[in-house]
Amino acid sequence: QVQLVESGGGLVRPGGSLRLSCAASGFTLDKYTIGWFRQAPGKQREPVASISGSTTTYTDSVKGRFAVSRDKSKKTVYLEMNNLKPEDTATYYCRYNQYWGQGTQVTVSS
Q1: pLDDT, tens digit (0-9, with 9 covering 90-100), for 90-103
Q2: Is 65 helix (H, G, I), strand (E, B) or coil?
C-alpha cells in the first residue's frame, strides 16, 4: 500500500537550515507529483512546494530559500530549507494524491 514517511525536522535557530525527507513506498515515485505542505498551530495547512518530473513549484514565501528534489533510487523526496525564519515553524507533511505522511515538526527559534 502507499506509505509516506517524513523525517528530518527539529529545532533550528533563525538563519539555519534543515533537510526534510519523505520516504515513499507503494507507488513509482518518479511518475507522480509529490507536494510538501505545512501547518502552523491555529492555521490552515498550506502548500509549500511540489515536484512533478523535473518541474518544481514554490509558494512565494519560500522561493529562493527552499528547494525540493527527489532521489529515485532511494524513493525519497527532499525539501532543503535554508535561511529559516520563525514564521517557517510548522508541522511539515508530504502528499501524494490523497495520501499524507504523519508529518515532521520544524521549529525555528532563538
Answers
A1: 999 999 999 999 99
A2: coil
